[in-house]
């Protein structure tokens, strides 16, 4: 079982390659992510303390993995811990990976 | 003894509570179905000789509330001192759930963990070592499946036996300054890594949650901004067709036909029994009580079928998807996608719909949703729609479709209006919604939900509606000197004199007669009363069976008796649908809004909307059908313009205040940044 959990964690290794594609400002948000890939959250930047701590309680905080399942123009679906969530554009942009 | 049920949203608390208490509280497959605490005695088979009260609480992710309903839970476990806590943990999302568990374990109240939904884990090949988890948490852990009553009796017996004991918390928060944000954050991180450590130790997964699966494809279609909305519209259309329209799909109408047959037989029997009684007695009993109440009860099958279908929708997991797909559209008008859920619940009853708005975090959005959600016709308005569709439109299905569609349009327009008044632009609004796993809806639950509703409907008909109809019948039988009103002098009755001033105001809407005004007024007590009162005041005892009436030419009899054309009938129907809801729903609005200004704003907006819609339908309908405006066009126009002027004035006042506040807020923020 440790193996499975480690897999979950190590899947975030894919992040390394992604970093190269960062834009000039060096900031990449969930909206720039590739579906099916897992990333490590670098920063949560909602400018709203309550929202940040709510995301924290779901397991969405700096250093934790987040997987993009699919994205649309104005929303995306992610996996945080073992739950699937739909996020709107504003929130997707606030999650820096 | 009190045992509190706490856990993450959608972990199955209410399902478990229902199984243990025999209650039938609302359940659904999305987070935030339960928005208030509920309590009831445990069944004997679980409690034995002891008196044990189970307390069902809204779902919460942690002790720090984010939305109002989460606050109820942390407040309760902190201050109400329950004797034990059953912490329901969603076994499919252990890694998130245990954060809250460790907080509950610190309260000094004995905790039993119910590892729920273990059946799903079995299917997915996820294994959790319950014994190890129990050792790590230092509290009993039981594997349960609350939908199948599995593991519940052992779990609850343990919780009862633990009352009064003390458990040693596996994780204790360090003594930090709770106002120091950084210290709290660091502490929360430590807690999470503690939890992560436990999960890594006790859980093995065959399928990782992050892998794309079959239901992701389904979600991708349902959440597509175009396809998803078309599918949602089609689903709701199907619900209304099946429950209310005639045709091959119209199950509701088929049952209604059977049902009205029985009621008529009963009415005939009552009339026969009263043959030799004085005219007044038979009028009050046969017309007022049996006729009025019968008219209302006759539509029960439509309401039941509707509840059944909505229960299926709520139970499968579709609601969260609808909320997500509608979010971008709702955002445009300044609402959250979460406002869709109250609207769907509102097709059943406005009161739970208004309460469901609690899951909306932003206060302005929440109050706006509370204000607008009752524009969607509720179950009590189904009889009104069905009656008018039958009597004036030959039972056409479009009447009901248009009624719901217009309700949604009004919600959008109302939201835009409130957005304009309250200066929405100053607030960021995020949307996040958990997409629960799909599940096959439980037929048993849907049937229970339907029967529960039927019971409530019949009780309402036998109490409030019965009393109202009797009162209406008595008031129209007697004049102010308590003499029986003579034929031809109906306008002198108590009812007529009370309702006439209101009727005067309704002239520009095309239905300025006291009978119709009286029915609209009784509608505020309960919307079914509109039908009951119309049946009573027009003495149309046989008017419920619109199908039969149509065949015998009776529908037109109803139409002539009521003195309405199709245009005025439609105006009257819309007036009743979109004016303020019943008093009970207004009461719910009051307690949810917690602001007199918003409450009166809501009532004013709803009255204004009902009036304006009826005015437009009548005046322009008459213009199209007869080539000229209807009576009272100018006074009505003045009234509508006055309402618009009032809106503009209120908007100015509110926004001036808001701009001021915003400047202050901005200045404060800038000062903080420079400091």
Q: What is the CATH homology-level superfamily of chain A? A: Ferrous iron transport protein A (FeoA)
**Would you identify the regions of chain B where 5 or more consecutive residues have pLDDT less than 50?**
542-553
Give the biggest sheet of chain A: 4 strands, antiparallel
What is the overall shape of chain B? globular
Count of individual beta strands of chain B:
9
The residue-averaged pLDDT of chain B reads 90
Count up the domains of chain B.
2
Structural class of chain A: alpha+beta
Percent range for β-strand residues of chain A: 25-35%
Mean pLDDT of chain A: 79
Please tell me the CATH architecture of chain A by its name. Answer: Roll
**Percent of residues in beta strands of chain B:** 5-15%
Order of helices and strands of chain A: HHEEHEEEHE
Percent of residues in helices of chain A: 25-40%
How many strands, what sense, and barrel or not for the largest sheet of chain B? 6 strands, mixed
List keywords for this structure.
heterodimer, A: 97 residues, alpha+beta, SH3 type barrels, 4-stranded antiparallel sheet, two-stranded antiparallel ribbon, 6 strands, 31% helix, globular, B: 675 residues, mainly alpha, Rossmann fold, 2 domains, 6-stranded mixed sheet, 29 helices, 5% strand
Give a written overview of the molecule.
- The complex is a heterodimer of chains A (97) and B (675).
- Chain A has 97 residues and is an alpha+beta fold.
- Chain A has four helices and six strands, in the order ααββαβββαβ.
- Chain A has one domain (2-96): Ferrous iron transport protein A (FeoA) (SH3 type barrels), CATH 2.30.30.90.
- Chain A has helices at residues 2-10, 15-19, 49-58, 89-94; strands spanning 38-40, 43-44, 65-71, 75-80, 83-88, 95-96.
- Chain A has a four-stranded antiparallel sheet with strand order 1-3-4-5. In chain A, strands 2-6 form a two-stranded antiparallel sheet.
- Chain A is globular, with a radius of gyration of 13 Å.
- In chain A, 43% of the residues are buried.
- Chain B has 675 residues and is mainly alpha-helical.
- Chain B has 29 helices and nine strands.
- The longest helix of chain B is centred in the C-terminal third of the chain and has 42 residues, at 633-674.
- The chains are: A alpha+beta (97), B mainly alpha (675).
- Chains A and B meet through helix 1, helix 3, strand 3, strand 4 and strand 5 of A and helix 4, helix 8, strand 8, helix 9 and helix 14 of B.
């Amino acid at each position: 079982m440790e193996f499975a959990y480690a897999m979950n964690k190590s899947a975030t290794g894919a992040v390394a390659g992604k970093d190269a594609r960062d834009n000039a400002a060096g900031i990449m948000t969930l909206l720039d992510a590739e579906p099916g890939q897992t990333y490590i959250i670098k920063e949560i930047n909602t400018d709203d303390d309550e929202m940040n701590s709510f995301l924290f309680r779901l397991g969405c905080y700096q250093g934790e993995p987040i997987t993009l399942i699919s994205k649309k123009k104005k929303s995306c679906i992610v996996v945080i811990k073992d739950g699937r969530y739909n996020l709107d554009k504003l929130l997707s942009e606030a999650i820096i990976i | 003894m009190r045992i509190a049920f706490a856990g993450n949203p959608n972990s199955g608390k209410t399902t478990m509570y229902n199984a243990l208490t025999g209650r039938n509280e609302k359940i659904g497959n999305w987070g935030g179905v339960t928005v208030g605490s509920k309590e009831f005695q445990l069944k004997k088979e679980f409690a034995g000789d002891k008196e044990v009260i189970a307390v069902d609480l809204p779902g919460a992710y942690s002790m720090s509330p984010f939305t109002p309903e989460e606050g109820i839970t942390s407040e309760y476990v902190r201050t109400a001192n329950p004797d034990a806590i059953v912490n329901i943990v969603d076994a499919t999302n252990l890694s998130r759930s245990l954060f809250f568990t460790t907080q509950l374990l610190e309260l000094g109240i004995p905790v039993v963990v119910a590892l729920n939904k273990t059946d799903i884990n079995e299917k997915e090949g996820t294994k959790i070592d319950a014994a190890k988890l129990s050792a790590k948490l230092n509290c009993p852990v039981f594997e349960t499946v609350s939908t199948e009553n599995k593991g519940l009796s052992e779990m609850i017996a343990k919780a009862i036996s633990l009352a009064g004991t003390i458990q040693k918390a596996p994780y204790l928060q360090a003594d930090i300054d709770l106002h120091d944000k950084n210290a709290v954050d660091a502490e929360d991180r430590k807690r999470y890594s503690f939890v992560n450590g436990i999960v890594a130790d006790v859980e093995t997964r065959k399928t990782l949650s992050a892998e794309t699966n079959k239901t992701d494809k389904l979600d991708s279609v349902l959440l597509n901004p175009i396809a998803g909305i078309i599918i949602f519209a089609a689903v709701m259309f199907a619900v209304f067709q099946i429950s209310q329209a005639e045709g091959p799909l119209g199950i509701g109408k088929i049952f209604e036909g059977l049902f009205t047959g029985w009621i008529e037989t009963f009415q005939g029997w009552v009339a026969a029994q009263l043959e030799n009684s004085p005219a007044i007695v038979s009028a009050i009993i046969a017309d007022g009580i049996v006729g009025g109440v019968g008219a209302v009860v006759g539509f029960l099958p439509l309401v039941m079928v509707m509840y059944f279908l909505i229960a299926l929708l709520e139970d499968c997991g579709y609601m969260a998807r609808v909320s997500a797909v509608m979010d971008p559209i709702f955002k445009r008008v300044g609402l959250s996608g979460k406002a869709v859920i109250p609207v769907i619940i509102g097709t059943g009853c406005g009161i739970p719909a208004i309460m469901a708005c609690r899951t909306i975090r932003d206060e302005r959005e929440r109050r706006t949703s509370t204000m607008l959600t009752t524009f969607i016709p509720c179950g009590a308005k189904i009889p009104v729609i069905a009656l008018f569709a039958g009597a004036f439109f030959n039972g056409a299905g479009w009447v009901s479709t248009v009624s719901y569609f217009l309700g949604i349009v009004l919600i959008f327009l109302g939201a835009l209006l409130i957005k304009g008044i309250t200066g929405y632009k100053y607030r960021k609004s995020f949307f996040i919604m958990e997409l629960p796993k799909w599940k096959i809806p439980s037929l048993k639950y849907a049937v229970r939900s339907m029967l529960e509703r039927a019971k409530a409907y019949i009780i309402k008909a036998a109490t409030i509606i019965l009393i109202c109809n009797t009162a209406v019948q008595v008031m129209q039988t007697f004049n102010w000197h308590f003499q029986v009103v003579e034929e031809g002098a109906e306008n002198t009755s108590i009812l007529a004199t009370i309702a006439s001033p209101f009727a005067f105001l309704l002239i520009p809407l095309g239905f300025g007669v006291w009978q119709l005004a009286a029915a609209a007024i009784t509608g505020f007590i309960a919307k079914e009363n509109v039908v009951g009162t119309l049946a009573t005041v027009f003495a149309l005892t046989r008017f419920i069976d619109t199908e039969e009436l149509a065949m015998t030419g009776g529908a037109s009899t109803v139409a002539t008796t009521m003195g309405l054309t199709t245009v005025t009938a439609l105006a009257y129907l819309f007036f009743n649908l979109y004016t303020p809801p019943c008093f009970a729903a207004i009461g719910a609005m009051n307690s949810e809004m917690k602001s007199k200004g918003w409450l009166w704003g809501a009532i004013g907006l709803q009255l204004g909307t009902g009036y304006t819609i009826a005015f437009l339908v009548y005046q322009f309908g008459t213009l199209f059908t007869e080539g000229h405006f209807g009576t009272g066009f100018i006074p009505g126009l003045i009234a509508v313009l006055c309402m618009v002027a009032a809106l503009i004035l209120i908007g100015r006042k509110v926004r001036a205040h808001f701009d001021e506040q915003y400047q202050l807020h901005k200045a404060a923020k800038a000062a903080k940044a420079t400091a």
